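Example record used in the benchmark description.
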Amino acid sequence: MSHALTVVKVGGSLVADRARLCRVLGALADGADGRVVVVPGGGGLADAVRAAQGALGFPDPLAHRLALDAMAAMARIFAALEPRLGVTQDPAPALAAGAVPVWDPSALKAGRPEIPETWDVTSDSLALWLAAHLGAGACLVVKSVDARPGAGPAELARAGLVDGAFPGFASRFAGRIVLRGPGGDRPCRERIAECAA
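Model output (structure tokens):
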């Protein structure tokens, strides 16, 4: 496990606060959280997919793939806001070159057996999946609201702060999980035994 690497999910809800979003992206580019891979939330683009699905009734697997496209579009928006970030589907080469990658999850549209294609899986769970895949030491989830101190993955999911699949993905990630709201960091758990809470 690469304890020096942190996967940072930046919630699409931060789009509503451009100043904070730019500060967060700038700090990540500056190395404030060390070596990072940025995972973009889908934000309003993913919300548009939900609305279209509600109106038209197309199946969840298609909605999942369209939401991945929304994340890919947000990755490009993040890189436009902070030019020191580079968009990539494979973060490993960018990390090896010392760059700060923003993950484009488009390759997941081919399907992965461990990733259900439902709305239970959003960028929150995908950040944990990527963190486990890369052997990261931590996954930091940046949100527009604060969590209760000490809240575990299951409580965060019940409160609607993360998606429904987050506790299951957390149980398969051995690193630290931290939620950062406007008030600062809130560790979700420090040891793997706590992830089932």
